[in-house]
Write a structure and sequence with these properties.
It is a single chain. The chain has helices spanning 12-27, 48-52, 55-68, 82-99, 127-144, 161-173, 193-201, 207-217, 240-258, 277-294, 333-346, 355-373, 379-401, 404-413, 418-425, 432-435, 439-444, 447-452, and strands spanning 107-113, 119-124, 178-183, 221-223, 226-228, 262-266, 269-274, 305-307, 319-321, 329-331. By secondary structure, the chain is an alpha+beta fold. A four-stranded mixed β-sheet has the order 2-1-4-5, with no helix packed on it. Helix 1 (12-27) packs antiparallel against helix 3 (55-68), helix 7 (193-201) packs antiparallel against helix 8 (207-217) and helix 14 (404-413) runs antiparallel to helix 15. The two termini are 27 Å apart. 35% of the residues are buried.
Length: 464
């Protein structure tokens, strides 16, 4: 999505190949571990760390880290240098992990703009810690995921945001026309470590793993050259954050299921669907108390409310629904507004980029955007957005031609008649936005013209 989704693009196939080749040397130091038998519960074994350090598990973790790439941590080491570092240091690191003496480094604090305003705080681990956390996450996912609720969709194998949205749509279609929209205030920053560790301890009996998780939670965060202790929170940006957040909020899922409520959750974004305003208010009050008392989490009262799923304030993962007997998925107004703001920035004349550069940037953004928001069921919104985008580009091009004589020559070169070119060149009375929708400009800078530049279509077919 944008937000997530907000990061650099990775050439997955190329990086996977590089990762596989680069990791061969590092893998020689990894040792295999015979996994626990199928009849032996993971919660009963005290050898989870050996499973984390299994050769095949480490190899998958290293390849994943190399594919994901990402920024360097406080030590400045980029992930492409990780295989060589492991080749030289893995025996020592493995020994420290097994002995319980390994000390994770602090994470590097980075702030990025949130799609809804404000700043999101990320914690970027060092490459070696990213590797170890990924190896742990893979084992946790393998053994914990099957016990999670089927209505939890965030960061789980075989589950997606689109599936979560579809489930919410089915609830509304079934007649549950009120939504209890709960927003957790700074969830990742305010996770209580003791509460989280108590949940982990129910599933993990290997004390070395528990100690290592606690060490990661307390590793601290470097800001402006100083390391500050972390007494609460699970830093976003680390591989362990998603699985640990799902584990903690599984208590919420189980509570909602026990009450027979219809809900859908994607990480800390949870909506519950009920049949009346009064029922919604009761659920809001009781769940707020549950979160505060049992999980020590605070509900953001300003952003949480009971309302209709089609109200513009009540959105879920960038979507809302139409007010119909069979509601359709539509793009939430706020998400559409963000898309237009991003397009405005990319097409700003003051940036000085060439038309080719602007088109390439737009193409990169729009392909990802339509890959997510193309899931909507209201095509007119996409049609209108595409028309608006072309008009923005026509306006940009017309302004860059600057003089009437230049515009006239350009339009003639593009096949327009003398009369059409004169009309398209403008008289100085009308501004660029109005000129961008005149017939001569539409004819010269047509849909076909923008397609020739590589601009992706938001609709299969369009006119204008």
């Amino acid at each position: 999505m944008d937000d997530k989704r907000q990061k650099s693009q990775i050439e997955q196939v190329s990086m996977a190949r590089v990762g596989s080749e680069a990791s061969d040397g590092a893998m020689r130091g990894f040792e295999s571990f015979k996994s626990v038998g199928a009849t032996e519960s993971l919660a009963e074994t005290e050898h989870m760390l050996e499973e984390v350090l299994d050769k095949e598990n480490l190899k998958r973790a290293l390849n994943k880290v190399l594919e994901n790439k990402g920024a360097a941590g406080i030590d400045g080491m980029t992930v492409d240098k990780l295989p060589a570092y492991l080749k030289e240091n893995w025996k020592r690191i493995r020994k420290e992990l097994l002995e319980g003496s390994y000390a994770p480094r602090a994470v590097r604090r980075v702030e990025i703009p949130k799609a809804t305003g404000g700043m999101r705080q990320l914690g970027i681990p060092c490459a070696i810690d990213r590797f170890i956390q990924t190896a742990m996450q893979q084992v946790f996912q393998k053994h914990w995921d099957g016990a999670f609720s089927q209505y939890s969709y965030g960061f789980r194998p075989g589950k997606s945001q689109h599936q979560a949205i579809k489930q919410a749509q089915e609830y509304v279609s079934s007649g549950l026309r009120y939504v209890v929209d709960i927003d957790l205030e700074k969830f990742f920053d305010r996770v209580n470590h003791d509460v989280l560790m108590s949940r982990i301890a129910k599933r993990v009996k290997d004390k070395r793993v528990l100690k290592l998780i606690r060490a990661y939670l307390n590793a601290g965060m470097m800001e402006e050259g100083l390391v500050k202790p972390t007494e609460e929170g699970v830093p976003q940006g680390g591989p362990l954050s998603p699985i640990l957040s799902n584990l903690l909020l599984d208590d919420l899922d189980k509570e909602l299921e026990k009450r027979g409520l219809r809900f859908v959750r994607f990480t800390d974004d949870c909506n519950t669907y009920v049949g009346s305003q009064r029922a919604g208010e009761r659920v809001m009050e009781s769940i707020t108390k549950f979160l505060s008392k049992q999980l020590r989490l605070k509900v953001n009262e300003a952003k949480s409310a009971v309302g209709r799923p089609w109200q513009w304030q009540r959105k879920f993962l960038g979507f809302s629904f139409t007010n119909q007997k069979q509601p359709r998925r539509r793009i939430a107004p706020e998400a559409l507004k963000r898309a237009k703001e991003r397009i405005k920035r990319l097409t700003c004349r003051k940036r000085g980029n060439t038309l080719k550069q602007i088109t390439e940037e737009l193409t990169s953004y729009l392909r990802g955007w339509i890959g997510y928001f193309g899931y909507c069921e209201t095509p007119k919104v996409l049609q209108d957005l595409e028309k608006w985008l072309r008009r923005k580009l026509r306006c940009l091009i017309w302004k860059r031609w600057k003089r009437s004589t230049t515009r006239f020559k350009r339009l003639r070169a593009m096949g327009l008649t003398i009369t059409q070119a004169r009309e398209g060149a403008g008289s100085g009375v009308h501004g660029p936005w109005r000129m961008s929708q005149t017939p001569p400009i539409n004819s010269a800078l047509s849909i076909t013209y923008f397609q020739s530049l590589g601009l992706p279509a938001l609709m299969c077919s369009n006119t204008a």
